[in-house]
Design a protein that fits this description.
With 169 residues, this protein is mainly beta. The protein has one domain: Electron Transport, Fmn-binding Protein, Chain A (Pnp Oxidase, Chain A), CATH 2.30.110.10. It has helices at residues 15-23, 69-74, 88-95, and strands spanning 27-28, 30-36, 39-45, 49-52, 57-63, 77-82, 108-110, 116-118, 123-135, 138-149, 157-160, 163-166. The chain has a seven-stranded antiparallel beta sheet. The protein is globular, with a radius of gyration of 17 Å.
Length: 169
């Protein structure tokens, strides 16, 4: 690669370069849940992606150092919850290390396949895990959508520039 005359060479790939570039990428906010041996687990994810319509597949990333990873590593089923703009506090709770994520005020119930389902989200899905693909210090989880509720009206919660945000008209 050659530099353009008069410009400095672009920075080499580092973790900070990747984080800095993705701060400029607005992403929807989801919470992923699973049932572990010690009870329900969950975490906030901005890596949720639709993969395939036939069969219906999605993916998300999870760090192998995450407190939720041991349960997600073993879970046959996971819950995927799309958060609304009114759920910034819920997103922050599930992003906070060491938090009791399923204690009040979090409203949830045992859903299909014993997956923890969060109340009041824009949409929720119960999915069967079909693969966990190593990706550096993360795993990309591929899951087949089995059932769910696309929810009602509402606007999504976004994550951009290192903070939660909303769509604007």
């Amino acid at each position: 690669m050659t530099a353009t005359p008069g410009l400095t060479a672009p920075p080499l790939a580092t973790a900070e370069l990747l984080r800095s570039a993705f701060r400029r990428h607005a992403a929807g906010v989801a919470v992923i849940t699973a049932r572990g041996d010690a009870g329900p687990v969950g975490f906030t994810a901005t890596s949720l992606t639709s993969v395939s319509a036939e069969p219906p597949l999605l993916s998300f990333g999870i760090g192998t150092g995450s407190s939720s990873w041991p349960a997600v590593c073993e879970a046959e089923y996971v819950g995927v919850h799309v958060l609304g703009e009114h759920q910034e506090a819920l997103a922050a709770t599930f992003a906070r290390s060491g938090a009791d994520r399923f204690a009040a005020p979090t409203a949830w119930y045992d859903g299909p396949e014993d997956v923890p389902v969060l109340d009041g989200v824009l949409a929720w899905l119960v999915c069967r895990v079909v693969a966990r693909v190593p990706a550096g210090d993360h795993r990309i989880v591929l899951a087949e959508v089995l059932l769910g509720d696309p929810g009602g009206a509402g606007r999504p919660l976004l994550y951009h520039q290192g903070r939660y945000d909303r769509l604007r008209d």
